[in-house]
């Protein structure tokens, strides 16, 4: 498998992704499914987080026990569709911090335009997980990661549901060292920058703005 690229093939993830793709899936179901898939993928995305040990006391005796090493992780949803992945991730990382980044795609140029950024004062030394369900052209994710790198985090990971080959290529051309985690690699982009077969507009399906 390509370096820094992880296709998550877990049967539960794959089954739920198929439900997400169906056009008959309602907004209510879509939201729940996105959350569930995020939670399941969260295990894989964080599999290699650094660990340390600390001394604890069980009711029986003292022991050295494993714990996550370092500062609290930061989840970075790219607005607005990235918000759909946030709940599921927070279920498994209840103490994670959240940095919001607002980027939209100009429909004519498909280029990213940043309109909002709110993170804690420093990202230095933190582990960041960028949440973006659809890696299409890759432009928004590329711009988001560029912005986040200036905060000098310890690591950055990109988590999406569906990726287009074009988006993977473009993203890794700019950010080779940032691992991509996705549940599917689809066929291609259409002329409007939508993924085929994809699942449609993730933001519209999560927020019911169809
Ligand atoms: N964004 C989406 O929501 N869907 C696509 O197919 C591409 C970008």
TrEMBL record:
The pathway where this protein functions is: Pyrimidine metabolism; UMP biosynthesis via salvage pathway; UMP from uracil: step 1/1
As given in the record, the signal peptide range reads: none
Reactions accelerated catalytically = UMP + diphosphate = 5-phospho-alpha-D-ribose 1-diphosphate + uracil
* SUPFAM superfamilies named among the record's database cross-references: PRTase-like
Cofactor comment: Binds 1 Mg(2+) ion per subunit. The magnesium is bound as Mg-PRPP.
Q: Which GO terms describe its biological process?
A: UMP salvage; uracil salvage
Q: What class of enzyme is it?
A: transferase
Q: Which InterPro entries match?
A: PRTase-like, PRTase_dom, Upp_B, UPRT, UPRTase/APRTase
Q: Which GO terms describe its molecular function?
A: GTP binding; magnesium ion binding; uracil phosphoribosyltransferase activity
- This protein is called Uracil phosphoribosyltransferase
**Gene designation:** upp
């Amino acid at each position: 498998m390509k370096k820094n690229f992880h296709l998550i093939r877990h049967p539960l993830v794959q089954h739920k992704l198929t439900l997400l793709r169906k056009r008959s899936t309602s907004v209510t179901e879509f939201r729940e499914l996105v959350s569930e898939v995020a939670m399941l993928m969260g295990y894989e995305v964080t599999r290699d987080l650094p660990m340390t040990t600390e001394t604890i006391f069980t009711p029986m005796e003292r022991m050295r026990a494993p714990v996550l090493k370092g500062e609290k992780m930061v989840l970075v949803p790219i607005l607005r569709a990235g918000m759909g992945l946030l709940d599921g991730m927070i279920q498994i990382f209840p103490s994670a911090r959240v940095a919001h980044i607002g980027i939209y795609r100009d429909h004519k140029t498909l280029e990213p335009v940043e309109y909002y950024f709110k993170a804690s004062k420093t990202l230095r030394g933190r582990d960041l997980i960028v949440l973006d369900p659809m890696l299409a052209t890759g432009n928004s994710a590329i711009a988001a990661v560029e912005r986040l790198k200036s905060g000098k985090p310890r690591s950055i990971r990109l988590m999406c549901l569906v990726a287009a080959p074009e988006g993977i290529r473009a993203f890794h051309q700019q950010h080779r060292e940032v691992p991509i985690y996705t549940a599917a690699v689809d066929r291609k982009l259409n002329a409007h920058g939508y993924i085929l077969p994809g699942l449609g507009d993730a933001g519209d399906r999560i927020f019911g703005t169809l």
